[in-house]
Design goal:
This protein has 155 residues and is α+β, with helices and mostly antiparallel strands. The chain folds into two domains: 1-31; 33-148, Immunoglobulin-like, CATH 2.60.40. It contains four helices and nine strands. It has helices at residues 3-23, 33-36, 38-42, 46-53; strands at 59-60, 64-67, 71-72, 78-84, 89-96, 103-108, 116-121, 127-135, 138-148. Strands 1, 3, 5, 6, 8 and 9 form a six-stranded mixed beta sheet that branches. The N and C termini lie far apart (45 Å).
Length: 155
Amino acid sequence: MNRKRRSSLQIAAGSGLYGALVAIGLLRPGQVFAQSLEQAFKTQGIVETMKALGAAGAAESKDIAINAPDIAENGAVVPVGIRSRIPNTQMMALLVEKNPNALAGAYDILEGLEADVNMRIKMGQTSDVFAIVKADGKFFMARKEIKVTLGGCGG
């Protein structure tokens, strides 16, 4: 198959999929969540990352649950889940205090969806993880320590 034709077909299929997702309301035109997080992914440390997310001064909340093992045998693959019971949750993020870049993942929660996210992260050493939740324009957080017996994030 001709490379130009293949590229054209890929672009057309991607454009068609984007258009379909916009039409059914799963994507909003002009939504650039990933670009707004670009700076947050480059920061080091919890304080700087929370500032970049706009979450400085987030209040602790019992309505945020972090589902993760207390002890991770291998820091290269640590399963972590975040669940928010705060009404109108708009965004959830996970930060790892002692990783080179604190932001492990951030997710935009579309209206009407359950605020429940699961991911696998890398951790270089025992550390606190922070779940950050944005709901109705306000930020909330929860914290949990995960002990790592075998480092997996450059450590």
